[in-house]
Amino acid sequence: MNVTLEIALVKLGGSVVSDKGKLKTFSRKNVDSLSAEINSYLSESSDRRVVIVHGGGSFGHVKAKAYSIREGLKNDSQLKGFAEVRQDMRLLNSRIMGCLMSRGIASVSLPAESIVSIRDTAVQSEDFSLVDASIAHGMAPVTFGDAVFDSKRVFTIISGDILMHSLAGHLRPQVSVFCTDVDGVYDSNPVINRSARLIRLLTESTKVSLEESARSDVTGEMRGKLAVLFDIAHCSSRTYVVNGRVRGRLLSALRGDVRRGTEVSHG
Fold this sequence. Notes:
eight-stranded mixed beta sheet; two-stranded antiparallel sheet
């Protein structure tokens, strides 16, 4: 990559781009606001570039879980679900692209399979040629978590977080920002613990309670998300988790001026 460029890597979580409680409900007002903030950031310097990853939210997770897509092909009834999840994710991506383009951001959609190939749910190989070409020509690559082909399991799910991990390792961005529907990372689950404290600086030695859910899959998922955050922090000059549903938080993070959120440190 051209070392003179300032690269920002942005994850728009599924809970930010959609209403997770309502099937295929797009949060247009919120995504439009975030698109305006990204455009403001890019407009401040011609050397800035942004790479965007978005989650699936209510467009992806519901059917992916119902058809057990992550586990791979077990019976032919899953084939319909695999196809539907892919179709729904492209619908969501199209709507997000529309918001970005309407704000003047020259965006190009790059499905996950144009960047990575998967075997047994893990990334087997990576190809960043289209990402690099997009950046070199001043465009914003946009990729997303998806139902993808798996050379061992036939198909599986690749998450936006895994794509963030691969992209951060390649791009070595100046800043990586995760937009969620909460203010950052808490020391315990803020949904069930009102005394949960927002962690302003998260390090690998910070104590975070993961045992408040009776579901082991939720606890395991949170451990995985934290591991990804620390890995990305090793690749980024700055890494933040902010509330993407509060106007201005993304732009502040991109500028390195986070007043409410979590900074993730590899130190």
